[in-house]
Amino acid sequence: RDGAYAPALVIGTGYGAAVTALRLAEAGVRTLMLETGQLWTRPGRDGKVFCGMLTPDRRSTWFRRRTAAPMASFLWLDVVNRPVEPYAGILDRVDFGSMAVYAGRGVGGGSLVNGGMAVTPRRSYFREVLPRVDAEEMYRRYFPRARAGLRVNGVDRGWFEGTEWYRYSRVAREEAGRAGHGTVFLDNIYDFRYMRREAAGKAPKSALAGELIYGNNHGRMSLDRTYLAAALGTGRVTVAALHRAVAIRPHAGGYVVTVERSDASGRPLGTKEIACRQLFLGGGSLGTTELLLRARETGTLPRLGREIGEGWGPNGNVMTARANLPHHPTGCHQSTVPVLGIDAWDDPRHPVFAEVTPRAGGHRDLDQPLPGDHPQPRARHVHLRPGHGPDGAALGPRAERARGPLGAGVLRPDEPGQRHRLPLRPLRPRTPGVRRRLHLPPARRLRPRPGHRRLRAGEGYRNLYVTDGALVPGSLGVNPFVTITALAERNVERVLRQDVLTGRT
Ligand code: FDA
């Protein structure tokens, strides 16, 4: 075991973590970031850093023998997944019996693998979900700051109307209209100016070459190109990749974090302990939850509240797909970056917001067995407002109704969400193909109190903060990362003002 000290230690490198590190560093605080996944900068044998969705290799998947893509089946056949060598790949799927959770692994967290849809929730709904957070301040100050920091942009409408790459979206808009629903354009972190150059043959293709959930080699403004690049640019931030925090204990007014190191093939490289003054948890909903539960249940942070671990559940996102009849093709060329959403939010009976995406596994897999036809299903990430789900109940009738006009069928609702207990995972889930349970007292569900920056219970734990998606208490009705980023902007500003810069720690 070797030791180290950092004034501020940030666990994770996703949205909350990246914002926190940047703002701490700008304020002059030396900050160390720990990331369980890899730093994705080195090209593989094919000269590319990331593999595509149509030809996934070991870079695609976090320690599995077969890829585990969302929406991988067509007519109940797994036509998308491929065997791969166990490796510290970019997309993890953590299985918990009745529920599976996808997460990005690498410096940049979920920003490396997600659909990039950058959606700000409705203000009225934000107020319902986070009533203790000043919504006026969020929408005036922190949402705009987050959108700017993330480099959010939108597709050019004129180009959208004419390009073959978004024909699938235009078909969906037409069908939605026939079912009585409007659509809205969705912003994204993918650089649409770059995409137009791809389409014009002036730049290497990425979104137009089937790249997304296993990383984009070009065009994606992931955190390593925005917040993290800025953080590293200050000269005060260090990122330690393939470093996994496994335990936290208080020490001398701060904390000591136990860290396991490994190489990209999963070979252990030893354990170290890192002491810090301030500890920020940004391991994502799952990573942060595990660390807190483990700390409470093993007695290193026994005063953590019983509410931690309560109400943990999915983000309201339900995936389903439809197939079109051959006379209404969605096209062989589909951009992987979604730009349109079907907005039935105000429907009194079945409120839903459905994003129109191409099929994650790539449409070529699907149209080859059906020559001449283009019956590509379009996966829809459906967000259900709490109170009407997210149990799929509101989705069912909606999907049934939507199939009316063209006789299209619902192929497969994926994993209708439920509220879950979150079991603790083993400390070494990287052992290829093996996922065991850690035998500890039953875990509680996580709900660090939303909007509260400091973890308190009884006398509380000073200098310990949650900074990521674990703060969001339920579905926001839209994709979450803009909100997670904005909340992190808000919270770190307060921590700096009230705790760090005043020396009141
Ligand atoms: P995030 O999960 O981003 O980062 C956590 C990081 O911490 C990870 O890199 C992880 O490896 C690391 N970590 C965890 N535990 C650790 C430990 N113990 N020690 C060290 N490191 C640790 N959202 C959206 O708004 N629009 C979209 O289009 C999509 N699409 C989408 C597609 C897919 C396939 C996925 C998986 C997710 C999305 N999302 C999304 C969700 C979005 O990506 C997600 O909500 C955010 O990434 C969460 O940000 P956080 O800051 O909470 O953590």
Automatic annotation (TrEMBL):
Keywords: FAD, Flavoprotein, Oxidoreductase. Its cofactor is FAD. Residues 359-435 are annotated as: Disordered. InterPro entries: Cholesterol_Oxidase (IPR052542), FAD/NAD-bd_sf (IPR036188). Residues 377-386 have a biased composition (Basic residues). Belongs to the GMC oxidoreductase family. PANTHER family: CHOLESTEROL OXIDASE (PTHR47470), FAD-DEPENDENT OXIDOREDUCTASE 2 FAD BINDING DOMAIN-CONTAINING PROTEIN (PTHR47470:SF1). This is Cholesterol oxidase. It comes from Streptomyces thioluteus.
